[in-house]
Amino acid sequence: MKRGEPTLIQHQQHPRKFDIEEARRVLGDVFAPWVQDLNLSIEGIDYEPPQTAAAGWQPGAVLRMPFSERLCRNGGIVCGQALMAFADTAMVIANLAANRGYRPMTTVDQTTHFMRAATASDVLADARVVRMGRTMSFGHVTLSSAHDNKPVAMVSSAFAMLT
C-alpha cells in the first residue's frame, strides 16, 4: 500500500472500544515516518471511566518516548522540538481514545511550557481530553521523566476534527 492511500482504519466504523492494539495500529499506519522514527510506544489507553473514577475523570492515553542521543541537543538534553512532536502525537491518540476510533484531525493550537530539562531518560506523556466536541477537541499533556516521574513540560492543545 502506498502512503496516502486510504487504509482499513480510515474506512472502519468506530469500534465499541479503542484499545491499545488499535492505538498501536493507528500509530503505525497514520503518522508520518519521521514521527515513527521517535519509536514511541503506547503504555495505556483510557476510553471509559473505571468504576472507581473520580468526578473529573478524562479519557486519554499514556505514551513513552525512549531516550535517544539523536533527540538531544548540546549537553544531552532532549530537544524541545522532539518533546512537542511527542506531546502532539500523544494528544492525537488521546483524542482517538475519547472518540473510540480513528477520526481525521489537525492541530490548530499547541502551547508548551517547559519546566525542566529532560536528560538521559525516557519521557512519558499523559495526554487527557478535556472536551471533545463535534468540530473541536481540547486537551492537555503532562510530559514527565520516566526516571523520577517529575514533570518536564505541560502542553495544552486544540484540534479541529475533520469529519
UniProtKB/TrEMBL annotation:
Q: Is Nucleotide-binding a UniProt keyword of this protein?
A: no
Report the GO molecular function annotations: acyl-CoA hydrolase activity
Pfam short name (any one)? 4HBT
Q: What is this protein called?
A: PaaI family thioesterase
Q: Where is the Thioesterase domain?
A: 76-149
List the source organism: Bradyrhizobium sediminis
- Domain of life, per the record? Bacteria
Q: InterPro entries in the record, alphabetically?
A: HotDog_dom_sf (IPR029069), PAAI_dom (IPR003736), Thioestr_dom (IPR006683)
Q: Does the keyword Hydrolase apply?
A: yes
Keywords associated with the record: Hydrolase
